[in-house]
């Protein structure tokens, strides 16, 4: 292998991939060179490349262990690398945090690998450690005169699994869409608590949320929860003002409650789309006034402790008023935690399911504070697919896997910790990012291109396993699209639930797959935020909207309507195969939806997720992928209140719960 090819391999630059059409595609040399240059490497400097290759390939064999060492259950094997002449010496391992020390005879250890470099011969040997608590521990290894320190990761075999989960159902919603008499034009945490109560009474066991990440406070119209300012913090527009007011003294509470009542009456809640600028101005002004009174009466000890515990993360936001920013985030943490506690108190087995976006924007505080961890000139995106033949550039900077590893993955650990707090499960958007990401960049000739870059899969999976046990969180991976078989099998072996979207489960002839083909360890949905709600899909209103907004031509719209008619006919056939003879092409969309939901309720997938939009009979999508300002994405409100929606669907939900129990 020549020096450049070796550098491609050692930096995880992909060689080939299988396109959605089944076509085998090999990346051109200039594409791979560009990807390597995004690591900050000069591809023409072969001497520098040789040094880097040595550091990544040979040098690790000269050390007992690396900076991070994984010990994974159930085998709990610690792998060490030693020169062959040192095998006769005893190995001492000390983990001071756990008061653990042991000595091992390497002469009897199992050989798991070897490497010859020039005149040196190295062995990889495995020694078995006892079962240790999941976590990260400083450890010291000594072999003769060689002393090496490492961060020992004790990794469970799988992510956390709730006991006796069975086949349950839950709700998915976009928090900002919730309507209520008391909010200020955007759904908030008190609306969520109300929704949890209704859902729990209906027998639902969890509520899947949109990403709650902090967005751009100074630019409220940047509304996508998937292009956040910082993924470790929450959007303060979700704060329920009543909870903030309750922190004040009685006289102040009376004043602010009166102001809140006026603001509730003045909010533009009857309109179809949220005016984020108006909501942000009103809410943040009231929160700032509440904060001033809060400070005047003397900071509480919990708030002071919160600031102390999150000093570094708060500094990443670089705001002019750090204390006010901390106050908002403290309120978010409190109120989200109250929602999870309410879910458990109402009997939900899981409670809230958080959603972690795949990345952050280049203008975001998260990126700016961690810029050294990202590649140069590369964005995250997707290869060509039926919806985007040229591929997709999501505009999100790509993490540099080498830099991620260089800091012992502290950035990713912090990200997972922040998003597992106060919830019962975490859904990871585009979970393939654990293994590989499509990097988008511009070649020297100005042409847009891209390729896959591979990430340290084993270490990232280990973090998910450890943190899920620390926080007792289930983990769900959004694995829609083209996912390599080895990734699917590794995720399943790690206890990470799959994510099934009914619309996409088809055979090569476009027929919907029978639900008996679905995985049991899966979160099953009819629709999500990237596809139209069912009634809109059945009535083809998503096609009409795209045509109205000039996103597709008249000819394309006509073609899509023909395709949709075919899809609807196939859905009717699918339902009839399960004995739902009451459904026909001229049936009301709500009746078809009910039949579909009840049929899926009998599937083996453990997590059946019912979209609140579908129960509401929504026809307008909350997001049209590939659009930004062309369509008012992430702004559409629900038609009715949570109480109205659950009242209208009481019979349907009861049937679904009965079917789930009957197939538990």
Automatic annotation (TrEMBL):
Keywords: Carbohydrate metabolism, Glycosyltransferase, Transferase
Cross-referenced PANTHER family: 4-ALPHA-GLUCANOTRANSFERASE DPE1, CHLOROPLASTIC/AMYLOPLASTIC, 4-ALPHA-GLUCANOTRANSFERASE DPE1, CHLOROPLASTIC_AMYLOPLASTIC
EC number: 2.4.1.25
A GO MF term: 4-alpha-glucanotransferase activity
Top-rank taxon: Bacteria
Catalytic activity: Transfers a segment of a (1->4)-alpha-D-glucan to a new position in an acceptor, which may be glucose or a (1->4)-alpha-D-glucan
GN (gene name): malQ
Record bears the keyword NADP: no
InterPro entries hit by this protein: GH, Glyco_hydro_77
Family: Belongs to the disproportionating enzyme family.
Pfam families in the record: Glyco_hydro_77
Enzyme class: transferase
Protein name: 4-alpha-glucanotransferase
């Amino acid at each position: 292998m020549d020096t450049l090819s070796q550098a491609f391999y050692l930096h995880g630059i992909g060689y080939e991939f299988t396109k959605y059409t089944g076509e085998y595609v090999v990346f051109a040399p200039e594409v791979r060179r560009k990807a390597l240059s995004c690591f900050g490497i000069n591809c023409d400097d072969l001497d520098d490349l040789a040094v880097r290759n040595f550091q990544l390939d040979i040098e690790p064999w000269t050390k007992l262990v690396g900076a991070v060492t994984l010990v994974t259950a159930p085998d709990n094997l610690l792998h060490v690398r030693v020169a062959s002449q040192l095998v006769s010496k005893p190995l001492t391992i000390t983990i001071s945090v756990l008061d653990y020390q042991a000595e091992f005879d390497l002469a009897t250890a199992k050989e798991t690998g070897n490497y010859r470099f020039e005149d040196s011969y190295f062995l990889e040997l495995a020694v078995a450690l006892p079962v240790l608590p999941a976590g990260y521990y400083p450890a010291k290894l000594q072999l003769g005169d060689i002393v090496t320190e490492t961060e020992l990761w004790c990794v469970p075999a799988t992510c956390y699994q709730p006991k006796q989960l069975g086949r349950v159902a839950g709700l998915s919603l976009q928090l900002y869409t919730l309507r209520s008499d008391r909010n200020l034009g955007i759904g908030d945490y008190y609306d969520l608590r109300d929704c949890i109560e209704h859902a729990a009474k209906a027998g639902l066991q969890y509520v899947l949320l949109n990403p709650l990440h902090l967005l751009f406070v100074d630019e409220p119209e940047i509304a996508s929860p998937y292009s956040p300012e910082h993924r470790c913090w929450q959007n303060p527009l979700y704060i329920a003002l009543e909870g903030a007011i309750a922190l004040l003294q009685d006289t102040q509470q009376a004043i602010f409650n009166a102001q809140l009542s006026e603001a509730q009456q003045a909010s533009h809640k009857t309109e179809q789309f949220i005016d984020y600028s108006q909501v942000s101005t009103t809410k943040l002004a009231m929160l700032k006034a509440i904060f001033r009174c809060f400070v005047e009466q003397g900071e509480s000890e919990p708030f002071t402790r919160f600031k102390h515990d999150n000093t570094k993360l708060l500094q990443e936001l670089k705001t002019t008023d750090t204390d006010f920013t901390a106050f908002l985030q403290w309120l978010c943490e409190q109120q989200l935690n109250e929602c999870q506690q309410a879910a458990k108190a109402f009997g939900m087995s899981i409670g809230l399911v958080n959603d972690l976006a795949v990345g952050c924007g280049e203008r975001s505080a998260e990126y700016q504070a961690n810029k050294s961890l990202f590649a140069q000139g590369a964005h995250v995106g997707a290869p060509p697919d039926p919806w985007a033949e040229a591929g997709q550039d999501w505009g999100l900077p790509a993490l540099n896997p080498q830099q991620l590893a260089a800091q012992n993955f502290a950035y990713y650990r912090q990200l997972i910790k922040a998003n597992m707090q106060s919830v019962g499960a975490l859904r990871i958007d585009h979970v393939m990012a654990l293994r590989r990401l499509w990097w988008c960049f511009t070649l020297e000739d100005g042409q847009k291109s891209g390729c896959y870059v591979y990430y340290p899969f084993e270490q990232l999976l280990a973090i998910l396993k450890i943190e899920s046990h620390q926080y007792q969180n289930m983990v769900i991976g959004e694995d829609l699209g083209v996912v390599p078989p080895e990734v699917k099998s590794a995720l399943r072996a790690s206890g990470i639930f799959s994510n099934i979207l009914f619309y996409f489960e088809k055979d090569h002839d476009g027929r919907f797959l029978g639900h008996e083909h679905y995985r049991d360890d899966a979160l099953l949905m009819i629709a999500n935020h990237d596809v139209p709600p069912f009634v809109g899909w059945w009535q083809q209103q998503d096609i009409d909207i795209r045509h109205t907004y000039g996103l597709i031509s008249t000819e394309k719209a006509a073609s899509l309507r023909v395709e949709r008619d075919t899809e609807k006919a196939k859905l009717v056939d699918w339902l009839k195969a399960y004995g739902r003879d009451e459904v026909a092409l001229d049936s009301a969309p709500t009746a078809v939806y009910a039949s579909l939901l009840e049929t899926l309720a009998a599937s083996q997938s453990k997590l059946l997720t019912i979209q609140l939009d579908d129960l509401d009979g929504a026809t307008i999508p909350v997001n049209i992928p590939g659009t930004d300002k062309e369509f008012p994405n992430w702004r559409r409100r629900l038609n009715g209140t949570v109480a109205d929606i659950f009242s209208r669907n009481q019979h349907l939900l009861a049937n679904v719960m009965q079917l789930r129990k009957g197939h538990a």
